[in-house]
# Entry
Amino acid sequence: MVSDKKTPGNNSILIEETAFIRCVNNTDRGWPKRLEPHTGMPKKLFYRGRLPDDRQPTCAIIGTRMCSPYGHRTAFEFGKKLAEQGIQIISGMAVGIDGYAQEGALAGGGTTYAVLGSGPDICYPPSNHALFEQIPEAGGILSEHPPGTAPLPAHFAARNRIISALADVVLVVEARLKSGTNITVDFALKQGKTVFAVPGRVGDHLSDGCNYLISQGAGIAYSPEAVISELLSLPRPGRSEIEASASNRELRRLQQERKLLQDTSLTENAKKIYGALSYEDTAVADDLVEQTGIGIAAVSSALSLLVLKGYAVETLQGFYQRADS
# Structure
C-alpha cells in the first residue's frame, strides 16, 4: 500500500511512500520539469531510487530488442562513454539495446533511469532482474502506473512518450525500418527533441531504421563524442528559469481557456466536452459520453472540432486531452 505521509524533514514536497517506492505528483516541487512543456504527460510518477536531475544533460538510448552483437557492443559503449561525462541515460530496460545501454551507464559509474510499462515493483522482462535491482542504486526505476500494475502491451507504447520527454537527445542505436522504436522517435520529434542514429551497413535489416532516420535529417552518431558534444552544448536551466517556465505555462493555459469561452465558432457541446478534458489525463469518447451525457456522435464531432481549432490534441489514437497553447 502507498501511504500519504510526507517526506521526513521536507514538508514542502508532498511525497507518498512505502519502504522502496515513492510517488511524486505534477504539482510537487520534485516533479521532473522536462515533462511540463509537453502534452500527454502523467499526473504522477511512482519510482524506486530517485528522479532525473533537471540540471544535468540527459540522453535516451533506444533500439531493437533482437539486436546484433554489433548493436550490443555499440549500445554498451555509448551508454558507458556518455555516463562517464555526467550524462544521464534514459531507457526502457527492455531486452536488447535498452538494457545494454543501461548496463554501459552503470559500468561507466553514471546514472541511468528506466521507464517501465508496468508498476515500478514488477520487473519486466524478468531476464533483466539484475539490472532492475542495480538501477535504483545509481538512478531510478520510474512508472506512471502504481505498484502491482501488470506489464500490458498498451503500456509500453505509451511509456515511450515519457522516455523521450525526459531526454534532451534521443539516440537510436539499432532498429529495423518498421520498429517499435519509431514510436519513441515520433514522440521525440513532436516534443522538439534532437534525434541521433548510429549508422549501419547498407542492406543490414537491423540498421535500416537508423539509416533511414539519417536520410531524413537525424544526427549521425558516428562516435559517442558526437552525441556528447551536442548534449554539453545545450544550455542548462537554473531553478529560477524552470519555475518561470511553469508560471508562463499556467498563464498560457488561462489565456487559452478565456479565448475558448469567447470563440463563437464553437458549439455548446464542444465547450462542454472541453470542460471535461484535462491537460494531464487523457480521455476516450466513451468516458466523455458518461461524464457529459452527450451522445457518442456529438462527442466525436465536438472532439474533431476542438482538435481542428487547436484546443485539444489526440495524444494516441482515440485518446484526447486539452492542448497546451
Notes: The chain has a mean pLDDT of 87. Residues 30 and 101 are 26 Å apart (CA to CA).
